[in-house]
Design brief:
A hairpin with a 2-residue loop joins strand 2 and strand 3 (45-49). It contains four helices and four strands. The chain is elongated and about 55 Å long. By secondary structure, the chain is an alpha+beta fold. 26% of the residues lie in helices and 19% in strands. The chain folds into two domains: 5-76, Alpha-Beta Plaits, CATH 3.30.70; 87-117, no CATH class.
Length: 117
């Protein structure tokens, strides 16, 4: 299988902890890395991409200490990359308060996937 060309200049980062993507993106913007686009991939992984070829590699080299504060590792994209889990929030609406329980939410969640404890 051939790689999508837009992924050739991307990197996969493994965050130190399960991400709050809003905070991670804010950190990038506030610290001057706003040219880097982040996409949540699942588990603790994010895809780092940029319009300018080679820029992410240069930023990683120059800002090594900054990236170490967020990531366990950052490697170039590879076609063999996979994630085993992806966290998804399900917005429940219309469930009466007296029915709120782990069992109820697990039953509703089972309609769209598997509940993780």
């Amino acid at each position: 299988m051939e790689s999508s060309s837009w992924l050739d200049n991307c990197y996969v980062g493994r965050l130190l902890e399960v991400p709050n993507m809003k905070l991670v993106k804010e950190s990038f913007v506030l610290d001057g890395f706003d040219v880097v686009r982040l996409r949540y991939l699942g588990e603790k992984f994010v895809l780092l991409s940029c319009d300018e070829e080679g820029l992410i590699g240069k930023l990683l080299e120059e800002g090594k200490d900054w990236f170490v504060g967020l990531f366990v590792s950052i490697v170039p994209w590879g076609d063999s990359f996979t994630v085993n889990e992806r966290y998804t929030w399900v917005w429940y609406r219309g469930i009466p308060l007296h029915l709120w329980s782990r069992h109820c939410f697990e039953c509703v969640g089972a309609l769209v996937g598997k509940a993780k404890r």
